[in-house]
Amino acid sequence: MKYLLIFLMVLVIFIISVTLGAHNDQVITFNYLLAQGQFRISTLLAALFGAGFLLGWAICGLFWLRVRVSLANAQRKVKRMQAQIEQGSTSMTTTSSSARE
Fold first, then answer.
1. Beta bridge partners of 30
2. How many CB atoms within 10 Å of residue 12?
3. Which of 45, 58, 65, 99 could form a disulfide with 21 if both were Cys (CB 3.0 to 4.6 A apart)?
4. Model's pTM, two decimal places?
5. What average pLDDT does this structure show over 29-48?
6. Contact (CB, 8 A) for 19 and 42
7. Confidence class of residue 101 from pLDDT cuts 50, 70 and 90?
8. 74 or 7, which is more confident?
9. Strand runs (DSSP E) across 1-101, as ranges?
10. Which residues have a Cβ under 8 Å from the Cβ of 75 and sit 6 or more positions away?
11. Would you state the pLDDT for residue 75?
12. Long-range contacts made by residues 4-11, C-beta under 8 angstroms, separation at least 24?
């Protein structure tokens, strides 16, 4: 439900920005690293908003992936330590029971 609300909010913001940008038919010169081009403001706003949105999701996805890998490693270590504790407790019980005899 939370993700649906976030998606709807982003969709509304995108629609509003496209609607507002559609009223700006002025052509501007946009200089980028390798060249320059003539673009309408509405097209440029929509393209840059989309590129920023995709870049933001890619960065967040990479951080999420890093956290998931870290969590998997921590869970593996916990299982390994639990196995060692169980082995230690069984060896302690066998040692203590043999000492009693």
1. 37
2. 10
3. 45
4. 0.60
5. 86
6. no
7. low
8. 74
9. 27-31, 36-40
10. none
11. 97
12. 10/53
Please provide the DSSP assignment of 87-98 as one string.
Answer: HHHHHHHHHHHH
Q: Give the separation between CA 67 and CA 78, rounded to whole angstroms.
A: 16
Band (46; pLDDT cuts 50, 70, 90):
confident
- Map residue 33 onto helix, strand or coil: coil
Length of the chain: 101
Q: Name residue 39's beta-bridge partners.
A: 28
Evaluate if residue 94 carries a pLDDT over 70: no
Phi, psi at residue 80, to the nearest 5°? -65, -40
**Token pair for 74:** 């921590």
Query: What's residue 38's pLDDT?
Result: 93
Identify the three-state secondary structure at position 101: coil
Residue among 61, 87, 66 at smallest CA distance from 95? 87
